[in-house]
Specification:
By secondary structure, the protein is of the alpha/beta class. It has 3 domains: 2-224 and 337-391, FAD/NAD(P)-binding domain (3-Layer(bba) Sandwich); 227-332, Succinate dehydrogenase/fumarate reductase flavoprotein, catalytic domain (Flavocytochrome C3, Chain A, domain 1, Alpha-Beta Complex); 416-513, Methane Monooxygenase Hydroxylase, Chain G, domain 1 (Up-down Bundle), CATH 1.20.58. Helices cover 32% and strands 19% of the residues. α4 (77-96) crosses α11 (374-391) and α12 runs parallel beside α14.
């Protein structure tokens, strides 16, 4: 097995991982590893934009208040404050390095659901993530202290009693390689592929989450998974998302009979918080047994072509002209609000291990992410992980252990598709105790079945997906209330006694932490 040694290992090439690389000092020898190509990430597909309080009628305070309201007041308030304030300078950094946000007599802002102001910056109409990622990638490739490893798959973390020391990876040939480091940053994204229908790329199978859990890191708020209300309703393995900005610019949701129905569910109509719009569409589809449509026409043909050129092009490829007709849409799995519990510098409960972006749970999003806050969080916390590393002492063992692998191969009785179907039907948009218990029992059996070491990408993805599905079902069953994206039909109301985080740790089981209290591992730093 080949061994490599670095000061910092970054796993993931979305905005969080790229930002960590961008803000890292040249004195560090860095490895940036990604499961596919650098360009293949959720960031690359992000259309709508990035939220920031830079408009003349806006302020960080208003952005803060909107984030709390959308998150069902389940957010960590100190973290929200950090992101909405520091986000302004981070956006200025992006502009300085050449990110080309759309302009019209100054920066052009749009509005999305649950925002009280027009504060969403966008690029090339509806290709914001693509523009940010391409700009950061061009800089990362020219940083001499960063070595890039594409098509490297994270198998597991290496740790001793106190700290993470590196990771086990499979290269493109499925050969095992060992990477050791002083510091390890996970920026691997979420786990949307555990659901039957998702906007996430096929690479997003919960690898960072599962490997961190196996290493003993704490995972928090695993029951809170956001379903985006409007994906194009066609048969695709990765659903094409239709940005919330469409509704922000005046797009209207209609049922099969042409009726605008959202005002029956919320006074803000199409601009209600994302979880409410998702459930409204889902319920309308169940009630009418017909498709739901998004009507672009109130926006106007000229503005559609300017603001949504990519959506216009993709929809045309599938036979829909959004300037002339409504298009069928459906809710799909989109974004993980839960993840690895971190502090304000991306530190986790294990020394030397940091996490940022969707794989992390900072507490920013609460129970329901405010639209376009995700790119901002990745940008802010990619840098904050580096700030944390600069404060902390490296603790790499001078003599890393020689690893021995007990490799086993056996027949597995279940598939990825069975996990996806089980999760969609039982741990999906609407949840209920008996269905959660059913899913949990099956997943419990499946994770025991894959509790072996076998260096094969497909097998490890299956192992990771079943692990994350199990943890999500467990947390969803424990939370006996409805809050934000977690909706229990047997507990349809919010309950004050559940205003606390559910934290899962491999060897300690369930831990509870009150909202706005610091992580208990903070005392270790």
């Amino acid at each position: 097995m080949r061994e490599k040694f670095f000061d910092i290992i970054i796993v993931g090439s979305g905005i969080a991982g790229l930002s960590a690389g961008f803000y890292s000092p040249d004195k560090f020898k860095i490895a940036l590893l990604t499961k596919n190509k650098l360009e293949e990430s959720s960031t690359y597909y992000a259309q709508g934009g990035i939220a920031v309080a830079l408009n003349k009628d806006d302020s960080p305070l208003l952005h803060y208040e909107d984030t709390l309201k959308a998150g069902a007041y389940f957010n960590e308030e100190s973290i929200v404050k950090i992101v909405v304030e520091e986000g302004i300078d981070r956006i200025k950094d992006l502009i300085e390095i050449g990110v080309s946000f759309d302009r019209s007599n100054g920066l052009e802002f749009t509005r999305e659901a649950a925002h009280s102001r027009r504060r969403i910056l966008h690029a090339h109409g509806d290709s914001t993530g693509l523009e940010i990622a391409k700009t950061l990638i061009s800089i990362i490739k020219n940083k001499k202290n960063i070595s890039i490893f594409e098509n490297y798959y994270l198998v597991d973390l290496i740790r001793d009693e106190e700290r993470v020391m590196g990771g086990i990876f499979l290269n493109e040939k499925e050969e095992v390689e060992i990477f050791y480091s002083n510091f390890f940053i996970l920026a691997t994204g979420g786990a949307g592929q555990i659901y039957l229908y998702t906007t996430n790329p096929k690479t997003i199978t919960g690898d960072g989450l599962a490997s961190a859990y196996r290493a003993g890191a704490r995972l928090m708020d695993m029951e809170f998974f956001q379903f985006h209300p409007t994906a194009l309703k066609i048969d695709l393995p990765q659903k094409f998302l239709i940005s919330e900005a469409v509704r922000g610019e005046g797009g209207i949701l209609r049922n099969y009979y042409g009726e605008r129905f959202m005002l029956n569910y919320h006074p803000q109509g199409e601009l209600a918080p994302r979880d409410i719009v998702t459930r409204a569409i889902y319920l309308e589809m169940l009630e009418t047994e017909k498709d739901i449509y998004l009507d672009f026409r109130p926006i106007g043909e000229r503005k559609i072509k300017k603001r949504f050129p990519n959506i216009l092009r993709i929809c045309k490829e599938y036979g829909f002209d959004i300037t002339k007709e409504p298009v069928p849409v459906e809710p799909v799995a989109h974004y993980f609000m839960g993840g690895i519990e971190t502090d304000e510098f991306g530190r986790t409960s294990i020394k030397n291990l940091y996490a940022c972006g969707e794989v992390a749970c900072t507490g920013l999003h609460g129970a329901n992410r405010l639209a376009s806050n995700s790119l901002l969080e990745g940008l802010v916390f990619g840098r904050r992980c580096i700030l944390g590393i600069l404060q902390d002492e490296p603790a790499l063992s001078k003599n890393p252990p020689k690893l021995m692998f007990n490799i086993k191969e056996k027949e597995i009785s279940f598939s990825k598709e069975e996990i996806k179907k089980l999760m969609w039907e039982n741990v999906g948009i609407l949840r209920e105790g008996k269905r959660l218990e059913y899913a949990l029992k099956i997943l419990e059996g499946w994770i025991k079945e894959v509790d072996i070491f076998f260096p094969n990408k497909e097998f490890i993805e299956l192992k990771n997906m079943s692990t994350i599905g199990y943890l999500m079902a467990k947390s969803a069953l424990l939370r006996e209330e409805s809050r934000g994206a977690h909706f229990r039909i047997d507990f349809p109301n919010m309950r004050d006694k559940w205003r606390k985080h559910i934290i899962l740790e491999k060897d300690k089981g369930v831990i509870y932490r009150d909202i706005n209290s610091p992580p208990s591992f903070k005392k270790n730093y």
